[in-house]
Amino acid sequence: MSNDLISIIIPTIGRSAQLDGLLHSITCATYKHYEIIIVDQNRTGIADDVIWKYNDILPIQHIKVNFTGAARARNHGLQFANGQYLFFPDDDSELFPETLELFIKFLKGAGADVLFGKCVDRTSADSVGVFSDTSGYLSLKRYESMFIEATMFIKKETFSKFLFDESFGVGTFYGSEEGYDLVLRMLYEKVIIFYTPEIKIYHPLKVINHSDSSEIRRVFSYRCGFGKLCLKHKLYRKYCTRLLQVILYIPYTMVAAPGKTRYYFSELLGLLTGIVVR
Q: In the chain, what are the helix, strand and coil shares in percent, each to the nearest 5?
């Protein structure tokens, strides 16, 4: 087995039970040569007891910061990383015992700089998104359904050259698409990126309540990120397709599903705001 050190960088905010689940899953990993860097964005000590629980079991660095933003937290964690490889699981995800071992195996076997797997729920069905069933190298013509940042395993030297764009992602005005932006920037520079559905990470599937105020705010923020991404990378067809879908769907909701109307109006406003507000 390889002795390459993996730096697991975990941004966390507002979660303790989920963080406990992630850390527990890491204790079960078959690959043991890792370090854990927790970038704690909580204003209170909500994560302290959980981290203390694992301090004698896991090699943890607990870094408290006074800012929020998942992309910024991941970038910040880089300066504390000693590993040759970096991994950025979400704080509500969990690893399978073989996850880290498979990351090393597939990255080296594919001769890649970056590796992605897929997220699944407790039934092993795709979670968060729909993922390709076929392994392969990403290219500018073939990358959809082949990446998500929560499964990104990347050489430290590669990540250091690109970093996440901190204007994207949870905790910012443009609340999504930091992973999409990073993948495109790496592909422009011919970075070798490989995807395999054989590597799985558990991630809960968020059930959307279209009438919930927090969901309505979230879709606005996420679509601001989507709009900014499409403008930055000139993904005009992708943007216009979604914009048209939402515009056409709103009249339908007003008649057939009025409980969803505010949600899709919020999405429409997010799409427009994302390309207007700088």
A: 45, 20, 40
Question: pTM (2 decimals)?
Answer: 0.95
Number of domains in the chain: 2
Mean pLDDT along residues 141-158: 97
Tally of helices (H runs) and strands (E runs) in the chain: 9, 9
- Out of 148, 182, 202, a domain closes at 202
Tell me the average pLDDT across 103-118: 97
Closest alpha carbon to 2 in 131, 130, 105, 97: 105
Beta strands in 84-125 (DSSP E): 85-87, 94-95, 114-120
Q: Per-residue pLDDT tens for 49-101?
A: 999 999 999 999 999 999 999 999 999 999 999 999 999 999 999 999 999 99
For residues 89 and 268, give the distance between their C-alpha atoms in angstroms, rounded to a whole number.
30
> What is the amino acid identity at position 175?
G
